[in-house]
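Thread: Elongation of fatty acids protein, structure

OP (GT): Posting the sequence first so everyone is looking at the same thing. Length is 343 residues per the record. Can we get the structure tokens written out before standup tomorrow? I want them in the notebook alongside the other entries.
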Amino acid sequence: MASEILKHVSTPTLDRPFGVHLWPLFDMGFEKVMGYPASEFTFAQNVTPLSTLKETTMMLITYYVLIFGGREVMKKLPAFKLNTLFMIHNLVLTLVSGILLVLFIEQLLPTLVRHGVFYTICDQRGGWTQPLIILYYLNYLNKYVEFIDTIFLVLKKKPLTFLHTYHHGATALLCYTQLIGVTAVQWVPITINLLVHVVMYWYYFQSARGVRIWWKKYITMLQILQFVIDVGFIYFASYTYFTSAYFPWLPNMGKCAGEEFAAMAGIGIISSYLVLFISFYIATYNKAAKSGRPRRNTGQKSLVEMRNFEIPPTTPANGSVNGSANGSATGRSNGPVTRSRKA
């Protein structure tokens, strides 16, 4: 295997941006698993596994029945730890996302440089080539593997948030609609999402190992940036498609590959992600900041409390208080002295 890899190593070029021609290696691995090379793969609706609306719907129904039914069952059972399995799951998803990402980059970079962005997102010869189709399909299948994230939450008796459960189901549906809708622009949200998933699943893997990660907040920020970019590309592709088809008198760049239902699904789902993730960020991070809750180990709270405490009166040796000859005082001279809390 090492010798086969070395055959494909060379100086990085536009066609081999990583210095290794990755596609022949992927093709060889694909053939060992499937029995035929990746170059012979074709996506055919109603023929390829999970290529029908019925199959996709059944998978989504099964997902929601399992997680919400499982949550009810787990109310009567103790939580499972499953830390080792959780680490393996997140490491596998990190590696799968990384491998798909570099394969996408190898396929897309030459086209982007030689033909430009519009050609790559709106022309089927740019964003709907045979190698990209198989990568789209594998990414789609991977969305069902990611359902296991929620199974772990159920078994560990962690809360199921609307954002989490909606996002997983809607993403599988989104990938399905773009596959059968032949949208060339789909590589934009897919590649950015793969980058986010490399970072996110690596974070979960390290956290399961007990490593303290300080940049969790920035994962959410990266996700929001992802959806902002996605919305820009999808809205542009949809705009130029609909205007060229129905309102040619409006400014447009011409036809853009894809079916209308796929464009509407992309607009609706990606827009909802942007709204939900911004809302999540505000609720999670801005709320904590506005509450005035101090950061850990700063001692800020203790210092504020100390500022408000009165200094106890001092009792001299002659029994007077605060220098008063008659021994009168505002506090008890022989009682306990109030002490400030340790900072």
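GT: Both are above now. Quick notes for whoever picks this up: The first helix runs from residue 2 to 7. The two ends are 61 Å apart (CA to CA).
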